Amino acid sequence: MTRSLPRRISAVTMAKADLDAPSPGVRKRQTIGDLLAEARSRLDRLEPAEAKQALVDGALLIDTRSADLRRASGIIPGSVHVPLSVLFWRLDPSSDHDDPALSDLQRRIVLVCAHGYSSSLAAATLRDLGFGLATDLIGGFEAWAAAGLPIEPAPAEPT
Predict the structure, then answer these.
(1) CA-to-CA distance for 157 and 159, rounded, in angstroms?
(2) What is the pLDDT of residues 1-32, one digit of tens each?
């Protein structure tokens, strides 16, 4: 009589199975590409010249890049620096940490990051927070600079 042994399941197989099955309260896994495509499908993204005109027309252009990048590359004249890590709290008027100069739900907001990726995700989140006119700059600051649009040195950060 031949006795069959139970099949052993490797730790790698178990780990892969865990990734495929979402935990309670967790949505089905998406790739960053999926999230980016979904976010961008909800935005009217702007080319650099369009972003410049939006700024002239009264849009709030928010630069979410780090202080180090701003010092190294410069800034867009008229932009406001709000680090990505605090963006939603500074803008959401229901937050205890909002900046009233930034939290007008009816104002057009154009986000600028270095290359136009994180700004798309952030602009979609602002839409979810009620900022119906939030969008971002296609290609980010690098595209603005490549288009030959105005750049000025970043102001000295307080120490």
Answers:
(1) 6
(2) 555 555 555 555 555 555 556 677 888 899 99
Q: What is the pTM of this model?
A: 0.82
DSSP state of 124: H
Residue 50, sorted as left (phi over 0), alpha (psi -120 to 50) or beta, turns out to be alpha
Q: Any bridge partners for residue 75, and if so which?
A: 152
Give the residue among 140, 137, 155, 63 at the shortest CA–CA distance from 102: 63
pLDDT in tens, 48-88: 999 999 999 999 999 999 999 999 999 999 999 999 999 99
Q: Give the active site residues.
A: 113
| φ, ψ dihedrals at 28, nearest 5° | -60, 135
Query: Domain 35-146, what fold?
Result: Oxidized Rhodanese; domain 1 (3.40.250)
Domain ranges of the chain: 35-146
